[in-house]
Amino acid sequence: MAIIEAEPYPFEFDPARASLLIIDMQRDFLEPGGFGAALGNDVLLLRRTIAPTRRLLEKARAAGLCIIHTREGHRPDLADLPPAKKARGKLPTGIGDPGPMGRILVRGEPGHDIIPELRPLPGEPVVDKPGKGAFHATDLDAMLKNRGITQLIVCGVTTEVCVNTTVREANDRGYDCVVVADCVGSYFPEFQEMGLRMIKAQGGIFGWVASSEDVMTALPAMAP
Ligand code: TIU
After folding, report:
1. Is residue 129 flagged as an active site residue?
2. What are the residues facing 128 on neighbouring strands?
3. Ligand 1 center–CA 134 separation, angstroms
4. Among the atoms of ligand 1, which is closest to the Cα of residue 24?
5. Mean pLDDT, the chain, as a whole number?
6. For the segment 19-56, what is each residue's pLDDT rounded down to a tens digit?
7. 200 among known catalytic residues
8. Where does residue 35 rank: exposed (0-12), middle (13-18), buried (19+ CB within 10 A)?
9. Ligand 1 atom 8: residue of nearest CA
């Protein structure tokens, strides 16, 4: 057991029962021309998460931590795309439509891929999710339970959408979540701040918030 310095109070970290969960670090959210941009956002705001997440990912790999990646997206036939999600925003170019990185948020298209800086290694599960929460309509819960995992160290985008939704789903399923403040990003600075405050308020109503430095300090040293 190790301690992660975190808010609202130190987190008792058990690396053998923990997973690093990296949410939706996809080209469609972090590069120009994808879904994030179609929604009117400046994707550059998310890119500050890439370097610290890469450092944390490398350290977590070296420590032997379970790593799980997620991607938001839909089947090429869009059969799993709720009409309400497709219609939302009345976008001229929306989910399933052609964009500069292929069809937006469609599995198998270049924009749906995880950014090259954080590419999963063979053996690291990638969970394809049709919703904002990573537990909705996926096998993530079974994967975690099968590995005996009860603690999630959470990175990814965006803080107030897929990260918060996933943390809330995890919390209701009995997982302890630590959200890594500099490894989650929002297109909106005020949502970044409030998205983190909502997690750690009221004694950690949804979980903990820590810096990547503090998580890395608590990770065990590389096995010989
Ligand atoms: N729009 C936005 O902020 N996020 C999403 O649509 N998906 C995720 O957060 N992954």
Report:
1. yes
2. 71
3. 12
4. 10
5. 96
6. 999 999 999 999 998 999 989 999 999 999 999 999 99
7. no
8. buried
9. 162
